[in-house]
Write a structure and sequence with these properties.
The structure holds two protein chains of two kinds. By secondary structure, chain A is an alpha/beta fold. In chain A, 21% of the residues lie in helices and 34% in strands. The chains are: A alpha/beta, B mainly beta.
């Protein structure tokens, strides 16, 4: 289905803003006209300067379903045009122009699930759309086996730690979370990935999101290990 | 900044298409490869947005914004398949 949730511009009001990690902030937006979104979708935030200059950036949504309260987590890029404003200056009560819901490729829907297990692989803030999928899976009580492999610098840099623990505690929706602390125990490698991923014989559906270099490395390893390229969906957010 | 991918086109292309272009498949007129638009390479650090084939790097599409208009170019797409 390609027409559901037609994207449009909306005005959102900041309801909550608090530190998520040392470099990132969680922002809860109230968007009364929001038509709902699938797990994994994103929105575009547009900032307009007093002189009319506009900058637009994409942010994944950590929530899904019909709710009009949307959770975002924004990592500050030191040279960024948009993220430093969102992390340091945006205040509760401020309004933001948002465009969405966007993207029907990098989504997981409980009602369209097959029996294949789902493997989620995140690098840093790339976990945000995967958090939406894990929460949707838990909320639906969906029996599809889920695994999340989450590569993050240190334990302090974990996003949505409590939400992931809650999702993993679901009795009906199995989720296992493996953390890879890249600055503590070393980066994710092909061998580690092969050890924690579902086996090739289980033919998992795979979602990979993170910095571009991380996504390219992981997608390459998955194919090397023997996973079908067509079973792997990727989303890159750039980075250095 | 390194490149993004075609998922990032969902917003800009929503101004042009009535459906989500990122799940459609496009045929590259450079190498003939047919790929889901979400898997294309997207470069946003130029004056506009440049979309390249992930197979042969040919320019599939460009988006350039001016204060009061947007220019969409499709120099390298010979067909788009949209599932109904």
């Amino acid at each position: 289905m390609i027409r559901r949730g037609r994207a449009a511009w909306h005005v959102g009001t900041v309801r909550e803003a608090r530190p998520e990690t040392p470099s990132a902030r969680r922002i809860v937006l109230d968007v009364p006209t929001w038509p709902g979104n699938a797990a994994g979708q994103h929105l575009d935030v547009r900032l307009t300067a007093p002189d009319g200059y506009q900058a637009t950036r994409s942010y994944s949504i950590a929530t899904s379903g019909p709710d009009t309260l949307l959770e975002l987590a924004v990592d500050e890029l030191p040279d960024g045009e948009v993220s430093p404003f969102l992390v340091h200056e945006l205040a509760v009560g401020d309004e933001l122009d948002v465009h969405g819901p966007l993207g029907a490729f990098f989504v997981w829907r409980p009602d369209e699930t097959s029996s294949a297990p789902v493997l989620l692989i995140a690098g840093g803030s790339g976990v945000v759309p995967l958090v939406a999928m894990a929460r949707a899976h838990a909320a639906a009580g969906d029996p599809t086996p889920f695994r999340l492999v989450y590569s993050v610098r240190t334990p302090d840099d974990v996003y949505f730690e409590k939400e992931l623990a809650d999702a993993a505690a679901s009795a009906t929706a199995p989720l296992r979370v493996d953390y890879i602390y890249s600055r503590v125990t070393g980066r994710l490698t092909r061998d580690t990935l092969a050890a924690v991923a579902f086996p090739v014989s289980a033919a998992p559906q795979v979602f990979v999101c993170g910095p571009t270099a991380f996504v390219e490395a992981v997608a390459g390893w998955l194919v090397d290990i023997g996973h079908s390229p067509t079973s792997i969906r990727t989303e890159r957010f750039g980075g250095t | 900044m390194s490149h993004l991918d075609g998922n990032a086109l969902a917003g800009p292309m929503a101004e042009l298409f009535a459906f989500d272009i990122t799940t459609a498949s496009a045929r590259c007129s450079g190498c003939g490869a047919i790929a889901v638009v979400a898997t294309a390479r997207v470069y946003t650090d130029a004056a506009g947005t440049v979309v390249r084939c992930s197979g042969c790097e040919a320019v599939l599409a460009t988006i350039v914004r001016a204060p009061d208009r947007v220019f969409f170019g499709f120099p390298g797409i010979s067909a788009i398949e949209v599932r109904s």
